[in-house]
Amino acid sequence: MLALLGATTLMLVAGAPWVLPAASGGTNLKSPENGRVCIIDDNFILQWNGSRESVRNVTFSAEYKIPGMENWKKLPGCQHITGTECNFSSVKLETVYEKIELRIRAEKGNSTSQWHELKPFIPFQEAQIGPLDVHLEAEDKAIIINISPPGTKDSIMWAMDRSSFIYSLVIWKNSSSLEERTETVYSRDKIYKLSPETTYCLKVKAELRSPRRVGFYSPVYCINTTEKHKVPSPENIQIDAENQVYVLKWDYAHENTTFRAQWSQCDSSCTCYVLNLEYLTHGRDLFFRTHLFHESLK
C-alpha cells in the first residue's frame, strides 16, 4: 500500500512541471525558463517556456528595471498572467537606446518561484520593422502608392529614422505571379508601365541601411487599373528651377488642349501639402512659385 501511494505521489509531481517537492513538506514553484523578448515596431512582447501540461491556478508576473532605478518595478501588462506571454508596450521608456532588465516568476496562492532573469537588452537593437499599411489609387497605366511609415505617428522606436527608410516593392499581375518585378519606391510614388483594365497585386517592405535592418512584407494588396484613357497623357515632363521660380515643361502631340497639374509633397511626419494648378492654357510651359497649402485646408 505504501509503495502504491509513493508511486501515485510521484505521478502527480511528474504531471505538474511547475510544482516541485519542498523539503519542508510544502510546495516550491519551478521558475519560468527561456525568457525572451520580441519587439516589432512599438509592440513589446515578453515570452517564456510553459509546461506541456497545465497546472491549475499558476500565474506569472514580471518586473523591470532601467538605468537610474534602484528598485524593481512591476511590468505593466505582465501581472498574474495565465499564459506564457504578455504585452508590455505600455511601459514608459524615455529612450529605446538604454538597457532594460526583466525578470519573471511563477505564482500560486502565497507561493512564488525564484525569479528568472533575462539578459539585459537595448530595445532598439532588438526591434524589427513590422508590416506596412499601404493605400493604392488606380489609373489606366499606373498605380499611385501611399505608404505609411513603420510604427505609429508617435512612435518612439523609429522617431529618429522616419526619413531614412527605404521601401522595396514587389508587383505582379494577378493572373501570373511569374511576371514579378521589384522596385525601390518613395512613401508616395507611382508605378508606371502597367496595362489598363488589369488586376495587379503588390507587397511592400521597409529597410534601414544603418543599422542594416529589413522589415516584414506588408499584406498583399490588389487593385484593378482603369480603362484606357481616350485622351493621351503628356510626355517628357521636366522641371527647370532657378531661385524660387520653377518651370514645368511637357510634350503633347495634339493642339487645342488644356492641362491640369498638381504637385504634392509629404514631409517626414507624413504631413502632406498640395498645390493645384488647374485649367492651364494651350502652352507647353508653366511658371509658378513655391506657395503651398495644407491638405486639410483644401
Automatic annotation (TrEMBL):
GO BP, sorted A to Z: positive regulation of metabolic process; response to virus
Protein name in UniProt: Interferon alpha/beta receptor 1
Family: Belongs to the type II cytokine receptor family.
Main location: membrane
GO annotation, cellular component aspect: late endosome; lysosome; plasma membrane
Domain Interferon/interleukin receptor: 128-226
Keywords tagged on the record: Cell membrane, Disulfide bond, Endosome, Glycoprotein, Lysosome, Membrane, Phosphoprotein, Receptor, Repeat, Signal, Transmembrane, Transmembrane helix, Ubl conjugation
Domain Fibronectin type-III: 18-115
Topology in membrane: Single-pass type I membrane protein
Upper lineage: Eukaryota, Metazoa, Chordata, Craniata, Vertebrata
GO molecular function, one term: cytokine binding
Quaternary state and interactors: Heterodimer with IFNAR2; forming the receptor for type I interferon. Interacts with TYK2. Interacts (serine-phosphorylated form) with FBXW11, the substrate recognition component of a SCF (SKP1-CUL1-F-box protein) E3 ubiquitin-protein ligase complex. Interacts with SHMT2; this promotes interaction with ABRAXAS2 and the BRISC complex. Interacts with TRIM10; this interaction prevents association between IFNAR1 and TYK2.
Cell compartments where the protein resides: Cell membrane; Late endosome; Lysosome
Position of the signal peptide: 1-15
